Amino acid sequence: MDAKVVEVFLKATSLFFSDKTHSSCELGEVALQPDLEIAADCTVIVGIGGYYRICLGLCLSQSTVKLLSKEEFADSGGASSEEDWLGSIARFIAERARNDFDFDYTVSVPLLICGPPKIMGFSLEVSKFVVPIRWKDETAHLLIAAEEPKVYLGQIIKFIHSHCKTEQEANLAVYQVFMNVPQSLLEREGIQSPASAREHIPLENQELQLAISKATEKVIGVAFTWKL
Q1: Phi then psi dihedrals of residue 136, to 5 deg
Q2: Distance between CA 150 and CA 142 in Å, rounded?
Q3: Cα(147)–Cα(127) distance, integer angstroms
Q4: Which single residue of 16, 87, 126, 134 could bond 122 by disulfide (Cβ 3.0 to 4.6 Å)?
Q5: What is the largest CA-CA distance in the chain?
Q6: Could you give the CA distance from residue 200 to residue 197 in angstroms, rounded to a whole number?
Q7: What pLDDT does residue 1 have?
Q8: Integer Cα distance of 147 and 152 in angstroms
Q9: What is the pTM of this model?
Q10: Predicted pLDDT of residue 228
């Protein structure tokens, strides 16, 4: 996972404590872990879907929950229960982080897990990070688990359209881009033509990615980039 992604969520976490509790927090060292093992009395989780697919979690002790409940934010925003306002913390971090990304995403309804989660397992393709949060005399943990991003055919087509003035010009540009990509590379991904291809096809072949970047730069003057 790109280091920028982790930094954005760390910044959003700091903003939560400074904006909502009116006191700063100290973020510890970011640790990459094979599995997430955190002792906590409750864990609130939200899912983020978009360019990245991310599981964002906040692990809290009961004493931290009690201290947070005394803060002004816990009684604001129409939160009717502990589950609601704990969920609002994770949603605040996820929504605030959106402002610093150059891509949009959706945020799920928060999930509250009561009791120690023991081990939270993810596939080997998912990067998993744990960050200690020290606030007042309390320690909580921020969990970030992100699947490496995938770019889909539909995103390429939308990118081309965004750099064209008319629908007709965009359709022609899409055709020209794919005409400038070796047919053998497209066929490996099951793409016979832009018209017949499914937009949700992931484009993971690096040789194909490079060819598409060169083709978009040649046709519309802007290279499609595959990283943040």
Answers
A1: 55, -125
A2: 24
A3: 6
A4: 126
A5: 63
A6: 9
A7: 61
A8: 15
A9: 0.67
A10: 42
